[in-house]
Amino acid sequence: MRKHPRPITRATALVAVCGFAVSAGAFSASATSEPPSSEPAASTGPAATTDAVTTATTQAPTTTVAPTTTVAPTTAAPTTAAPTTTVPIEVERQPLTGVPIDGTFITYTPRPALIVKIDNVGSAIPQAGLNQADIVFEEIVEGRATRFAAVFNSTESDPVGPIRSGRTQDVTLFASYNDPVFAYSGGNEGVNAALASTGWTLLTQGNGMFRDGSRPAPHNLFGNTSDFFAQAGESGDAVAQFEYIAPGAEVAGSPVASIDLQIGGYDVGWDWDATQGLFLRSQLGTPHQLTDGQATANTVIVLLVPYGTSPAAANSPEAQSLGSGDVVVYSNGSKIEGTWTRSDPSEPFALEAGGEPILIAPGRTWVELADAGNFGLTDA
Predict the structure, then answer these.
(1) At the top level of CATH, which class does the domain 114-379 belong to?
(2) How far apart are CA 326 and CA 301, in angstroms?
(3) Mind listing the pLDDT tens digit for each residue in 265-315?
(4) How far apart are the C-alpha atoms of 51 and 69, rounded to whole Å?
């Protein structure tokens, strides 16, 4: 049996009941009350007073009709409407996208997070599977090149790749995913030992990966996520890594149209396309094309982290994903500046702005692990 996940507490949203919607610009919502009505009910006006009527005949005595009584006006007492409140309830979501599950059109069966290391040099492009991953991390590796770690859970990609080697920085970075499956082409002795110490399900070239003869080695190793998930064994079910806005709410922040940043030796751009509701990725001055179109994301998180040196290789950078630092979050066309903290490898990054959690839009997320000591970032 798979390991039972830790309680998912980061995917809780506040949903309004009794006809009230959650505030679009708020990071969180608390109970609110509608003030009682001060309008009195409609008053009943005075009844008409009938004058006395005299009827005379020559045959019968005159009869006088008694006057009717004038009814005094009555005024209803003001009524007070019962206050309505917003009540926090949990919204069931896909853990790594935050997409609400309705049970009909959007369903979800718990399963592990599957992390696949993917190449990002000229011969590896176009890659397969990045637009199907729930979360993609971009890491700096040797020579100031970058490599992706694509995290799958809600969807599949057959094929995915090109698959490349792991790094020691992956051990701490993905410890919060509750015993994931980790697919990579291998590594040096130090990297393999570090990954083996995690107890994760490790998949390498002997676990169903194959070569694409149309590409040069070593940028031609691929696999199928369906095969990788079938080998998950006793891996734990995926747990949430970010916090999301309530259904119907808007992401707080200021509008942004484009992002330009430096990660390692790569110039990376993200342009907001309001029609598609997606950020479109470019690198090295051209659109980043995948096997199924341009790379996209609903949210781009720029984590400014210090880089050290891997204990497994003197020339291998290692992102330091414990501690704290600055973060800039771009979600659904909005920008939020804040801080990240993470003191325990088993816990996700905590993102805050003004003392409140940063809530992002449901969907696919890219995390750029930019070097805090050497990066450039501009947006408009």
Answers:
(1) alpha beta
(2) 11
(3) 999 999 999 999 999 999 999 999 999 999 999 999 999 999 999 999 989
(4) 10
Contacts for 149-152 with beta carbons within 8 Å, 24 or more apart? 149/115, 149/116, 149/117, 149/118, 149/173, 149/174, 150/115, 150/116, 150/118, 151/96, 151/113, 151/114, 151/115, 151/177, 151/180, 152/113, 152/114, 152/115, 152/116, 152/225, 152/229
Distance of CA 315 to the CA centre of its chain: 34
Find the farthest-apart pair of alpha carbons in the chain and give their distance in angstroms, rounded: 133
- What number of residues does the chain have? 380
Residue 44 DSSP label: B
Q: Which amino acid is at 310?
A: S
The total of other beta-carbon atoms located within 10 Å of residue 83's CB is 12
State the pTM of this model. 0.79
Q: 271 pairs with which residues across the strands?
A: 258, 280
Q: Which amino acid type is present at position 351?
A: L
> Whole-angstrom Cα distance, residue 102 to residue 362?
14
**Secondary structure (DSSP) of 199-239:** T-EEE-TTSS-EE-TTS-TTTTEEB-HHHHHHT-TTPPPP-
Please give the full DSSP string across 139-174, using - where no structure is assigned. EE-GGG-EEEEEEESSS--SSBB-B----THHHHHT
